[in-house]
Amino acid sequence: MTLNQLKIIEPVAGDYNLPDYSEVRKNFKWEDAGEGLSFKETGLLNMAHEAIDRHVEDGYGQKTALHYVNGDERISYTFKEVKEKTDHYARILKENGIEKGDRVFIFLPKTPECYIAILSAIKIGAIAGPLFEAFMEDAVRDRMNDCGAKLLITDKEMVKRVPEADIPTLETVLFAEDIEAEPFIDDGKAYTEWMDDEDGMLIHYTSGSTGKPKGVLHAHRVVTHQYESGKWVLDIKDDDVYWCTSHPGWVTGSVYGLFAPWLNRATVVIQGGRFKAEHWYKLIAELGVTIWYSAPTAFRMLLSQGDVLKDYDLSSLRHILSVGEPLNPEVIYWAWDELGVRIHDTWWMTETGAHLVVNLPGEKIKPGSMGRPFPGVEVGILDEAGAVVPRGTVGQLAVKTPWPGLMKEIWGNKDKFDSYFKYEGWYVSGDLAYQDEEDYVFFQSRDDDMINSSGERIGPFEVESKLIEHPAIQEAGVIGKPHEVRGEIVKAFIVLREGYAASPELLEEIRVFVRNNLAAHLAPKEIEVMDELPKTTISGKILRRELKRMEIEKSAVDQNA
Ligand code: PRX
Known about the structure:
With 561 residues, this protein is an alpha/beta fold. The chain folds into 2 domains: 3-435, ANL, N-terminal domain (Rossmann fold); 453-560, 2-Layer Sandwich (GMP Synthetase, Chain A, domain 3), CATH 3.30.300. 30% of the residues lie in helices and 23% in strands. The strands form 6 sheets. The chain has a 9-stranded mixed β-sheet. It has a 4-stranded parallel β-sheet with strand order 4-3-5-6. A 4-stranded antiparallel β-sheet has the order 16-17-19-20, with no helix packed on it. The structure holds adenosine-5'-monophosphate-propyl ester. Adenosine-5'-monophosphate-propyl ester binds next to helix 9, strand 13, strand 19 and strand 20.
């Protein structure tokens, strides 16, 4: 049975923000989009103003902007309080000499301070660089050095993982604890810097198959795309309680954890702490979460916990979304059977700034498909010559340029930036997919060696570079090994230097070496020692694809044994 023949799930009747996809898509123009945002009236643009201050000006200052939950801790802020806090942080950033265009990094756990710090940097015209909370020294240093970070907001615990002396541009380190302890001064000053569409706003580091992580820079113009997708795809209404499980160090956590929901005036849930099915269900029940955005690995983990969900009242949930990795049909059917709610898959990338292919609440879902193009977005499946292939044929998933969410540049790397646009008029994603007659897009695989583990994008080069720093390792090749729950896991093949013998202790030491220097999710879950690695005959480059082919073949043999 092909994916196309799986049971379609029809929409539940409802009053959705986008009632008629086909009609809206036919007439949609980006120039007309963004109605309701203040810059459309005033011409004055700043993401932080649109996301927070605008709502206070419009009389919603007393509405709850966020609920923070971590263990037994509970904090809630209104939009007015979030505005005051961003002003407070903004004043302190200014006092520390931050000016328009400076890079301000934020290295904090998933707390209100993390969200507020990001917005305050953006408010004063700086470029915010949120870092994932589990990064270790090397990962922090590489990213901050690449774009010349000037200031860092962190806390007294996480600063231990910041190698300050190795970041020469870093002038100031501020602790969230100290900023919070300083009294807010209502000086009546307007800290908002009005920005041009093309001024930089946010930088996220992301991985490809080659080289170190790249800095994807987004400009303030993303506001329109993020606002419209929050309205139509997240389907946010004024009484919604919205929870995105991702950390703002990842693009899902910033765009759909912070910007899109707050542009649409949602009450946002911020959850600290680790994944545990009971905690997640308890949180949904306690806060009455209505919209929930997460990733397939998390849903699969919940599914594997079986009946735990029966102990909680999850009836508040009306809309669930997924992103980051293939959403398997079993998960969609599970949610539909157990919760009576569909899971809406969405596709986009760090580089694309916002949703491009989506399942909308008012439209049918074909399980196995990521959905259809967002209004204003045209998808093309291309062959090697850049020509559009017939429907049903697998090819390179590409998108007609431009659109407002599209990245502005790759920091300091024009060649890399240009490589996304190798066919005139198209952005090439690096994913392979096909599109059916009704425009639904079906993901097949990556077109390169990038690894996707639990929805986190992992570049094999970053892991390999770290592995060969270990004294026992001569060479290393890293691949994504298929895994039932996590999609893929990181697997390393290594050749040992002379004088070293393979032992469980040595392999564990190597794994810990990567974990302690880079991050836990980058550490190989499996390490296999080989006599030599497969290489190209001419350039001697390690053939990751060959390693992957061997691994998949071996797993098939193991399973059949
Ligand atoms: O391969 C695709 C996969 O994640 C990549 C983008 O990763 P990142 O920039 O980290 O952004 C993740 C969330 C926006 C894509 O090139 N991907 C993303 N969404 C899906 C997906 N793969 C399958 N199905 C999806 N819905």
